[in-house]
Specification:
By secondary structure, the chain is an alpha/beta fold. It has 8 helices and 13 strands. The protein has one domain: Rossmann fold, CATH 3.40.50.150. Helix content is 26%, strand content 24%. It has an 8-stranded mixed β-sheet with strand order 8-9-5-4-1-2-3-13, with helices on both faces. Strand 2, helix 3 and strand 3 form a beta-alpha-beta unit. Helix 2 packs across helix 8.
Length: 307
């Protein structure tokens, strides 16, 4: 597991998980141990994701694992805190064309207001120390009438409930507060998460319970495609009880869908000022920060030296 970034001063955004230089793609997804989870999540996303649109952003896109699901979108922004994972995405998907690669802090998004009509965030919420702050940034980036498809790790799942009943764990799966089981890794109560999504201004349209069969024995005995198909068959009915470790939700940003989206994708993450293109940068006309655009990667993690 990657280390958290250094603790932020009180007036700075919360800590974030930094996967820079990690072997996340190889160790986590290419070993085959999570083939069932990958397939089950894809089934859920196909049910929730609007099949086509003008511009989509995936927050925490990493190496672009899910990018093939976005074929119906004219432009796709893959945003992650890790430059190295985005470089891996570029190797897989190419530079230019429909894909735009953005290195940025979710708490200080460089996206202009209302710039996308669909946003996706999978396996990221569980790393967020300040969910309300992140949801506020995400809501700002989505145009009225747009969709937000998100996944979160639930604390109120069957295994946790059984362990708590047998006194094999001290924390309660019924407590509404998020539970941090290791630094910057959180599980959430579905009721709490629904409240935060509403508070951020989203309307919840549809929920799915995912990974019903996330058990080592089953994953060894049953082929991943069959296990995922069984999961897909009960994701809808399972959402009535939400007893799985993973919950997917589709939310809507209220309002009438605009006829067009902003032409300019970005604003300065430091001051929200307008950006003008330089030779290898985007330059803020308000605070003077310069942000690198070298190698087809829009890098908003830190300003360029001398800014």
């Amino acid at each position: 597991m990657p280390d958290p970034a250094p603790a932020a001063p009180p007036d700075q955004p919360p800590q974030v998980i930094d996967y820079e230089g990690s072997d996340y793609q190889q160790r986590f997804w290419e070993t085959g141990e999570r083939a069932y989870e990958d397939l089950a999540e894809r089934i859920a996303l196909r049910k929730l994701l609007p099949p086509a649109g003008r511009r989509l952003v995936e927050f925490g896109a990493a190496f672009g694992r899910l990018a093939d699901l976005y074929a119906g979108y004219q432009q796709v922004l893959l945003l992650d805190y890790s430059r190295s994972l985005l470089r891996q995405a570029q190797e897989r998907l190419g530079v230019g064309g429909r894909f735009v690669y953005v290195a940025a802090n979710l708490y200080k998004l460089p996206l202009a207001a209302g710039v996308v009509d669909t946003a996706v965030m999978v396996r990221v919420m569980h790393h967020l120390a300040d969910v309300p702050a992140a949801l506020g940034q995400i809501h700002r980036a989505i145009a009225p009438g747009g969709a937000f498809v998100a996944e979160y790790a639930s604390k109120r799942h069957l295994k946790a409930m059984a362990r708590y009943a047998l006194r094999r764990q001290t924390w309660s799966p019924y407590d509404l507060a998020p539970y941090e089981f290791v630094p910057l890794n959180f599980d959430f109560h579905p009721t709490w998460m629904s409240g935060e999504l509403h508070a951020a201004g989203f309307d919840i349209e549809l929920e799915l319970a995912v990974s019903h069969f996330r058990m080592p024995l089953l994953k060894r005995l049953v082929p991943a495609n069959r296990l995922a198909a069984a999961d897909g068959a009960v994701q809808g009915i399972g959402a009535l009880w939400k007893l799985t470790p993973s919950i997917f939700v589709r939310c809507a940003a209220p309002g009438a869908r605009p006829a067009s989206l902003p032409a300019s994708l970005f604003q300065c993450p430091e001051c929200a000022g307008a950006l003008t293109p330089g030779a290898d940068s985007l330059d803020c006309t308000a605070c003077g920060c310069r942000w690198s655009t070298g190698g087809g990667l829009y890098d908003f993690k830190e300003p360029m030296p001398g800014a």
